[in-house]
Design brief:
By secondary structure, the protein is an alpha/beta fold. The protein is built from 14 helices and ten strands. The chain has a single domain, classed as Metal-dependent hydrolases (TIM Barrel), CATH 3.20.20.140. A hairpin with a 2-residue loop joins strand 5 and strand 6.
């Protein structure tokens, strides 16, 4: 399946690492029930080759290590990739959301050293969920900027029932986190943040009907008094990417939101994704009966609205300024 000029909002990378670190991560994955035969590796040349083969014009890269020093180094490397390939890669700067002050510092660095296009967060980062009230100063700053924030679950936790969490648990973590953000009033207080939820919202679209039906019953704690009308409005404003979900999650997503909130994502660059699965997902998107050809094409290019600096680089082929 060949596309033309699409922007992929859901693409991962790894900074260069010593072999000992690569092998240590591989051992940890095996303990977490992964059955991969080789340790995960990433290099820009292979990724660019895939993009060239499929017609993907640009990837918005994200990587969110669990330690602050590694996260900062990863952001630096991601920024260098965007500088080296300004019309092919953008950077979503990772934010350490277990430390609001450090996260705000990375936001500040995004303007100077990083020149990031947007931000990336993990639903639950070192035990702190995105609904935690300690993150209010961070959300306030991102709201002021009208920032685009890509949210991804933790795919590397301990296995569940003998299977890696990347298979199913990531979808439930996404649903739990965004439901709690809804009840915590995050979307009410910070309406200008444009959240992009990975994997088409995980299990959230499928659960949204239950939330709207039962979520305001008197047996459900709701200290912010979020109404059913608000719930529907906030859920419909979330952007959802198409990574690793076609076609079934897309049908549920379109019951929760509208086609103009869908963006293309591949989940490229991680061990749970192969060229074959990315191709199959892309083909299923094009074949989905619930969208017109024009709507599918718009999904591939909608990220230009969320990341205008990246879109400008894609247009000109060079860094601005």
């Amino acid at each position: 399946m060949l596309v033309d000029g699409w922007i992929d909002v859901h693409a991962h990378f790894y900074p260069p690492e010593p072999e000992t670190q690569i092998q240590a991560r591989f051992e940890a994955m095996k303990q977490a029930c992964w059955m991969t035969a080789e340790p995960p590796r990433w290099d820009p040349a292979s990724t660019l080759a895939y993009m060239d083969r499929t017609g993907i014009a640009m990837q918005m890269l994200s990587n969110i290590p669990k330690k602050l020093e590694a996260l900062q180094a990863s952001n630096d490397y991601g920024a260098s990739l965007a500088r080296e390939h300004p019309a092919r890669f953008g950077l979503l700067a990772a934010l350490p959301t277990d430390d609001p002050d450090a996260a705000l510092e990375e936001v500040r660095r995004s303007d100077t050293e990083l020149q990031a296009d947007g931000f990336a967060v993990t639903c639950q980062y070192n035990g702190v969920y995105l609904s935690d009230r300690r993150l209010d100063p961070l959300w306030a700053e991102l709201d002021r900027r009208r920032a685009a924030v890509f949210a991804h679950p933790d795919a590397y936790g301990p296995g569940v029932m003998g299977r890696p969490v990347a298979l199913m648990e990531v979808a439930f973590e996404t649903a739990r986190t965004f439901a709690d953000m809804l009840y915590a009033g995050v979307f009410r207080r910070y309406p200008n943040i444009r959240f992009v939820v990975s994997h088409c919202g995980g299990a959230l679209p499928a659960m949204s009907g239950r939330l709207l039906l039962l979520g305001n019953e008197n047996w459900v704690p709701n200290p912010q008094r979020i109404t059913a009308i608000e719930m529907r409005q906030h859920l419909s404003r979330l952007y959802l990417d198409t990574a690793a979900t076609m076609p079934t999650t897309l049908a549920a997503a379109l019951a929760m939101t509208t086609p103009d909130r869908l963006v293309y994502g591949s989940d490229c660059g991680v061990p749970c994704t192969t060229d074959a699965t990315m191709d199959a997902n892309l083909e299923a998107l094009h074949a989905f009966a619930g969208l017109t050809r024009e709507q599918v094409e718009a999904i591939g290019k909608r990220a230009a609205q969320l990341f205008p600096r990246a879109a400008e680089r894609l247009r000109t082929g060079r860094l601005s300024g």
